[in-house]
């Protein structure tokens, strides 16, 4: 297909494939976390949900089951066939630290992880903690210049924690110089469009761990690759599981999508201009089973490279 298709068509095919996989993931998460009518009538389940956040008088966010992140991860594996674990890396270098491991099996092309955190457009790069002094190891840059900082996300949340993007960096010690500007700058993308409703992000996302994937050591090869994913904000039912928010009042990006996978808003030519959130996911570059995930960091040659870094492809 790639030989016969234009670059634009190829990109659309990739986005449709990734979106389809993420939509399936979101459906599985709903089945795990959202209570249904039968569970409402189950006294035991009601007792487990007694302290679910946010308050039950909030009509925007449905009630969610009181499960820990570990419990959600285990149930997700039962549905999709794999889960992710963070534990000491198999790389022997002293700076390797924690690594990201796949428990289960996936095929080539499978979306295996989200890169969570704050999305900074090029206009706001100066506000990224550790960006200019290379002291933040949890940054990833898209081809279009958008940078995602996963440091505020950490390892996610536990139990019933739901995370509102407007509060995500307030307590970071290295953000003291930025906190004064949070009221005007650190607003979720949806709010910058004039949507005043609170959009909560589900912190119990077992796949929001891409920032723990290590660069392969010498003699090793990467087995996952970065794939930019433009999440269409019109997919409101999926939004809670996309672990990213936009920093600042940046202009909302729009993109044309075919109406084959967006149910509403199609124009006469079969495409729709919809607002998007520019994110990143990791995709398996070969079939994987029960192994550590390695990502080619592709560090710039213009900067001083760390001791542990071995280029996968010099060119």
TrEMBL record:
**Signal peptide annotation:** none
Which InterPro entries does its entry note? SET_dom_sf (IPR046341), SETD9 (IPR040415)
The protein depicted here goes by the name SET domain-containing protein
């Amino acid at each position: 297909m790639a030989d016969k298709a234009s670059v634009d068509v190829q990109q659309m095919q990739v986005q449709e494939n990734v979106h389809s996989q993420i939509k399936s993931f979101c459906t599985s998460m709903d089945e795990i976390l959202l209570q249904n009518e039968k569970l409402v009538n189950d006294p035991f389940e009601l007792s487990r949900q007694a302290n679910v956040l946010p308050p039950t008088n909030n009509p925007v966010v449905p009630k969610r089951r009181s499960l820990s992140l570990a419990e959600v991860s285990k149930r997700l594996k039962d549905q999709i066939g794999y889960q992710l674990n963070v534990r000491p890396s198999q790389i022997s270098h002293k700076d390797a630290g924690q690594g990201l491991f796949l428990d289960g099996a996936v095929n080539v092309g499978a979306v295996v992880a989200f890169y969570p955190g704050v999305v900074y457009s090029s206009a706001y790069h100066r506000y990224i903690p550790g960006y200019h002094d290379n002291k933040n190891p949890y940054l990833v840059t898209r081809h279009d210049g958008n940078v995602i900082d996963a440091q505020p996300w950490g390892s996610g949340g536990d139990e019933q924690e739901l995370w509102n993007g407007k509060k995500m960096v307030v307590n970071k010690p290295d953000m003291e110089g930025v906190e004064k500007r949070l009221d005007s700058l650190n607003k979720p993308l949806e709010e910058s469009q004039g949507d005043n409703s609170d959009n909560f992000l589900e912190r119990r996302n077992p796949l929001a761990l891409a920032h723990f994937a290590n660069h392969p050591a010498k003699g090793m090869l990467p087995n996952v690759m970065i794939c930019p994913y433009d999440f269409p904000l019109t997919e409101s039912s999926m939004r809670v599981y996309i672990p990213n928010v936009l920093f600042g009042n940046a202009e909302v990006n729009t993109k044309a999508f075919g109406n084959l996978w967006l149910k509403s808003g199609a124009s006469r030519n079969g495409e729709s201009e919809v607002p998007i959130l520019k994110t990143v996911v990791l995709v398996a570059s070969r079939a994987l089973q029960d192994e550590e995930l390695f990502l080619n960091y592709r560090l710039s040659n213009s900067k001083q490279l760390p001791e542990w870094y071995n280029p996968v492809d010099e060119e």
